[in-house]
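Hello,

Following up on my earlier ticket. Below are the two sequence lines again, exactly as submitted.
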Amino acid sequence: MNRMRLLAATLATACLAASALGQTAFRAAKVYLGDGEVIENGVVLIEDGRVQAVGKDVRVPRGVEIVEIEDGSITPGLIDANASIERRDIFVRDQLPGGALRRVLHRKFGAPRSGGCDSCATCPLVLSHDQLAVGEICPVCTYPTHGMVASATAPGVIPDALSTEAASEVVAHTRVLDALNLRSEDFDRLLLSGVTTVLAMPDSSAVIGPQAAILRTSGPLADRVLDRSAGVKAVIGPDPYSTGLGNLRPFGGVTTNRTRRPTTRMGVVWVFRKAFYDVDRLREGAPITGADSAPPEAIEVVGRVRDGDMPLLIQARSQNDIEAVEHFAEEFGLAPVLLEATEAHKSIDALVANDRDVVYGPLYVDATGVRSGTGDTSGARLGTLRALFDAGLEPALSAQDLRDEAGLDRQAMAAMKSGLSRDQALRSVTANPARILGIEDEVGTLERGKRADLVVWSGEPFAATSRAMVVAIDGRIVLDRRD
Amino acid sequence: MPGDRLLLALGVLALAGAPAAAEPTRIVVDQHLTPDGELAGAVLVEIERGKIVSIEEAPETPPEGAIAFEGVLAPGVVDVFSGVGVTGSTVDNTTSVAADLTALDAIDPLHPTFAEAARAGVTSALIGPAPTNPVSGVSVVVSTRHNSAGRLDVLNADGPVVFSLGPAAVDTAFGPTSRAGVLYTIRSAIDSGQGVLADVASGERMCVAFCPDGDDAASAVLAMGEFDIAPAIVHASDGIDLSEDFGDYASPFIVGPYTLDTPPAALAGPGFLARAGVPIVVHGDTGRRGFDHIRTTAALAVKYGLDPASARRAFTSEAARLAGIDGSTGSLTEGLRADLVVWSHDPLRADARPLAVWIAGEQVAGNSSGRTP
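Thanks for your patience. The regenerated structure is below:
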């Protein structure tokens, strides 16, 4: 954190000066504090980015701006503890006038415009690329040119540098923050759903993946990162072999260091278990052996996970994968957070027995995206989150990659439709994820001294007709749809 | 060994015959570039033993023996990430941390582009390794004219260390295969503190990060900020967005090359960055486009909002600062090397051409009698 402060000082002096925040007040027909309490006609007074006072009779000093939505409501800013951030960039990809030119070029080259070739999507001088030899480095954008080869379809070529590090199945030493685009328009879409804090997650192509980061969805660069190493994401299930690039079927293709070995659930589980065994070998000074061995720097981080110094979050969807997580937890004495947990309703007893933290979600009727091809979605039920609450657990709800009408506020709406109380739905997207992420002293409820993250809804929170009208992060208004 | 002696002997002969050391050269030009990059009035400059010994306001009538020009006297252009003298490839793909690789080894001292550069007003050049590895190597700064011994005149063998983000640094065969992997490689390399990277970590040595995408720049600053390093950023396209977060950034942005095809939004970037307080250096991609392209790039940035003084500094004093040679050249200051160009007009003008060029006090191009046609 100290280094971040230093960075803030050097980087964004101007930004910080501009955000020398005074006082602001928010007033609405109902203020949901997030701890179950609701204040009618309440006022939230904010000073220097923190909640100064909440209540019915809070005196607002003269001259302080009051943000008010008639018949509206206020909740704490929403938290998504398992968010996948898309890397889309507002500026470069779509708004440069050169976009049309690029499309022509891509048509000419037969290369896909998006996903396939970052070179032509970002280089301001893409025209010069066709004067270079294939594979030559463009001096402007420093990308190797693809010439006439459509890079997305060329075998053995990763189309862009966005995916999880593929040099090993265990890449716990890398950080998702390094691969994120903090200016991605995905953050704007999260704001529209009222999300102010996310645990930004890597994709699920590695068995033990990069470290996740806790981020704010808006604000100056230097204030965006709350925790750059908030935990390691691991995956039990088919994703590493079905979505990982370069997985080769047995008896086919060339074996390189990028060849993804696990091609079965068994293989995934073995890679996971071996990484934990290798911790001991590394500590005893013994060499790590085996064709699938992870690099020592990754094993070192796995060691920190095993010692409990680094949180572990494991994605598991089907019942047998969830049971596998519980077995690991017992075998290695871990307390992992369970992610996605599609079939958690089938394993309620085990989850309750271990008092498991669960980040459930998303809810869906028809699976889309990466989930659709996994064969893990047929067991999804709309009532799973309610079943977890009914069993006495305090789970969080996540929209992962879903946005807009399937975004986190709509997820909470759907959960309420399936029987959650408004209070439970609110907790599942505010206080519960804050507790699971260990940031409950900073965010999650509207309390004096906490960060002033709040959403002013046009009506009741999570009602089908409600939308986020004003969103504030650290007291700064970052979304305002009042006009 | 005998070859070396022969060269030495030749060098001694060349020194003995060099006219520069004998008599001071005096030049009168009716406009000049101040160290701030502004255009100012007529000056009389005296050069002796390769250095600028005095700069003063020109008298009404030029003194006896002085060469008079109608034009603009400016420091020689410093070409960053130049293509001058580079022979073969500066790409090394056997490792992802090539900290010990130096661009000096890729330079052909007899390459004809040296003379071409000098004639175009480029008096020194920073030559870097190709940014194809997360840690790409060490850049080197040379004069475009050989020293009196006929050898490559290396102004700074310890130039900025080059880091690279973005897909060029990704190696699909041997790793790192991802952005996160590239950043990890950079961070762990700095952390290991081997060789030149120790100097980078301690802040003694400038470093440069090639950031093809705007968020590569953000990643570079966040990741290297952990070590309190502020790398110079090579980035051409979205300065507008970056200027919000890079206010008063301590190290320069290296922008360009720009052409008439460059989108206006990218061309406006340098202006936004400069107004936010970020020093600007222009990159002209001279290896591919010729040496005038440095000034074309600067001029296009001016057209879209960069102030002319910053633009002129961007290929003289700021470029020299980036190259670590600002103590010896890069501005019209007494005591510095006499690397001078007389331009026919303001160098930002498209029709400006060099009328005369001096490198270390030696005239290498142009009319030595002054009074150009």
